[in-house]
Amino acid sequence: MQKESANNYYKPAEDTLFFAEHLQNEKGKTALDIGTGSGFLAQVLSKNFELVVATDTDLKALKKAHESIENCICCNAADALTAIFDLVVCNLPYLPSDEVADPAVDGLRDGVEIPIKILSSANKAIGNKGKLIFITSSLANYNELIKQTQLLGLSTKIIASKKLFFEELILVGGTRKMHKDD
Ligand SMILES: C[S@@+](CC[C@H](N)C(=O)[O-])C[C@H]1O[C@@H](n2cnc3c(N)ncnc32)[C@H](O)[C@@H]1O
User: Fold this and answer.
1) Is the CB of 134 under 6 A from ligand 1?
2) Minimum CA distance residue for ligand 1 atom 9
3) Domain ranges in the chain?
4) What is the pLDDT of residues 7-49, one digit of tens each?
5) Is residue 69 within 6 Å of ligand 1 at its C-beta?
6) Is the CB of 90 under 6 A from ligand 1?
7) What is the rounded CA–CA span in Å between residue 121 and residue 80?
């Protein structure tokens, strides 16, 4: 993940392609792509899901995404949605930063502050049998992010990782912890 000009939406990068590779076999009825950017991951999901919804806070990005996908919504994470999804994915802004100069990549403290807010919102959109997949990095305090995700009531596991020149990408999956009587 690299910073871009603040006037531009996030173009598919190494992290996007790594994420996409691991979405190829995901199937279901409904999927949500939070922070869709160009819409690349939502397009991948459209192949195996009947309905894909994509959100982003960046209107420029959504304009681009809307060229190839439907159901683009400009909102914070999943805040505007009442639906529950089979799969929620998010390529988070995970770079540690002191301020949010570029909302596409800046994650504030330890690269976890913004991701935690986004995942808290995402959590409401994950059904009991639903699944969350998000990407983080060795540049962030990913262990804290994973712990915080567990505090949201999700069981987590690292699905895959990929070493790049300057960071290691870490793909994390989460499923709802089931109670005995579920
Ligand atoms: C790293 S980019 C990923 C873009 C695209 N999903 C990809 O994989 O190429 C993160 C995206 O999240 C969006 N974003 C940042 N904060 C957000 C928030 N609170 N709610 C929704 N989208 C957000 C940014 O505008 C940006 O498009």
Assistant:
1) no
2) 12
3) 30-176
4) 588 999 999 999 999 999 999 999 999 999 999 999 999 999 9
5) no
6) no
7) 10
Domain 30-176, CATH class in plain words: alpha beta
61 lines ligand 1 (CB under 6 A): yes
What does the alpha-carbon distance between residue 87 and residue 104 come to, in Å, rounded to a whole number?
22
What is the tens place of the pLDDT at every residue in 78-107?
999 999 999 999 999 999 999 999 999 999
Gap between the Cα atoms of 127 and 24, Å rounded: 21
Q: Is the CB of 104 under 6 A from ligand 1?
A: yes
